[in-house]
């Protein structure tokens, strides 16, 4: 029994020594899912310090860009880069589709966001699924880039399925579109169609969809 206790103590001591080496901590953290990293930064000061000083970890967390921001050229074609979508966006119905635009087939990343609003719903901040609302890490999540490398512009189509109308708009960010900027934009779109408090309705909720199209430059085209 004493031997088992000694072995356990030895393993614990060895583990502690490993975690005290910043390079090893960085390698361990890089193996974890992005969402877990935002939680683990609150576990201890050593882990937090490693994550703040590691450019590689910040890039994996979509907090720092991998390469220059992708911009539309004069002919509407991006350089040949492959876009990686932020895993937070996969909370939604994430899919890749080939869409026709100006008679040319262009491949887009499509993020479909479903939002159900009850009757009598007034202006309310858009709740981005996956964000830890009201927590200390919320601001970190808001600074996450939507793609790697960062993309300069996204086209947004808002569909009010109750009224059958659509609202097309675009969001531009010179240093790259972030989750926070897109969330704020969606908040403004949703608020235009929300019923004011006290409004009499049919008793049924309204379902509204937002579709964000991000161009994949692999086949060319623009958004």
TrEMBL record:
Instruction: Domain (F-box): give its ranges.
Output: 23-52
Which InterPro entries does the record cross-reference, listed alphabetically?
Answer: F-box-like_dom_sf (IPR036047), F-box_dom (IPR001810)
**SUPFAM superfamilies from the entry?**
F-box domain
The molecule here is called: F-box domain-containing protein
Q: What is the lineage of its organism?
A: Eukaryota, Fungi, Dikarya, Ascomycota, Pezizomycotina
């Amino acid at each position: 029994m004493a031997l088992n206790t000694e072995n356990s103590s030895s393993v614990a001591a060895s583990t502690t020594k490993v975690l005290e080496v910043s390079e090893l901590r960085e390698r361990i953290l890089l193996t974890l899912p992005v969402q877990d990293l935002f939680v683990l930064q609150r576990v201890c000061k050593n882990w937090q310090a490693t994550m703040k000083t590691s450019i590689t970890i910040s890039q994996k967390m979509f907090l720092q860009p991998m390469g220059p921001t992708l911009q539309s050229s004069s002919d509407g074609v991006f350089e040949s880069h492959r876009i990686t979508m932020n895993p937070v966006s996969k909370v939604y119905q994430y899919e890749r589709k080939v869409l026709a635009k100006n008679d040319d087939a262009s491949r887009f990343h499509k993020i479909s966001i479903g939002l159900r609003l009850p009757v009598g719903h007034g202006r309310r901040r858009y709740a981005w699924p996956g964000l830890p609302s009201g927590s200390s890490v919320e601001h970190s999540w808001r600074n996450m880039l939507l793609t790697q490398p960062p993309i300069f512009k996204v086209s947004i189509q808002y569909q009010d399925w109750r009224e059958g109308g659509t609202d097309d708009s675009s969001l531009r960010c010179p240093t790259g579109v972030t989750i926070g900027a897109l969330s704020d934009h969606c908040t403004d779109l949703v608020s235009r169609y929300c019923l004011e408090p006290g409004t009499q309705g049919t008793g049924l909720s309204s379902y509204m969809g937002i579709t964000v199209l991000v161009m994949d430059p692999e086949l060319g085209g623009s958004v």
